[in-house]
Amino acid sequence: MGVEITWWGHATVGVRDSGVTVLTDPVFARRLAHLRRRRGDVPPAGAARADVVLVSHLHADHLHVGSLARLAPGTPVLLPRGAGAAVPALRRVRDRLRLTEVAPGDTFAAGAVTVRVVPAAHDGRRVPFGPQRAPALGYVVEGAARTYFAGDTGLFDGMAEAVGPCDAALLPVGGWGPFLGHGHLDPARAARAVARLRPRVAVPVHYGTFWPIGMDAVRPHEFHSPGEEFARLAARTAPRVAVHCLAHGGSVVLPDAAGRGTSG
Hints:
Low-confidence stretches: none
Distance between the termini: 16 Å
Oligomer: single chain
Largest sheet: 8 strands, mixed
């Protein structure tokens, strides 16, 4: 079996590598405050079954405590260092889950894979709860393949060196509103990132899922088009990288050494 990547919407991705299921930034909700899930169903119950869960930063569309509560008891969850102090609601799950706070440079073993923590360039504070208390993170899952989950990040010096060689890159290419602020990748910046990283496969995420209520007609292209725009631009900046724009719940299997693979 190859390494299978399944996009459940926004930054929620399942990576199945060497018999280990890794789940990123789980959000199993139809609505988050002023945001609603505009495309794609809420992930099915099976999407919450994971051997390890990676949380990239403290924003509520990435660290969603209600979704963490759906994980099986004892599931290991990696969180940015300082998350417990910054997010009091984590007390609801700390006795059910194995919460481990990490920082760039840390590693975590989960069966046949190793998770390596890398930096990200993003404001990861828990809005509106005061100052920056925890860094935003990315992760590299190393098993049969090396899969980089960027979380939410902008371009930063030393990005390729921090991530190292990777076979697949899960890159944010948009957001949940009509304007992206500092510390994000839009399709053009994500295309520049993939040119630096040079993975075999890139999967655009963090777009086309949540949108503010009542704003469907405001800059709708920022909701619908980032994935395809990223694929178009990446074909210029990194023509050897295979870009897979997945449907919600769709998967891609990383090609083996002979270049075979599937997506849907």
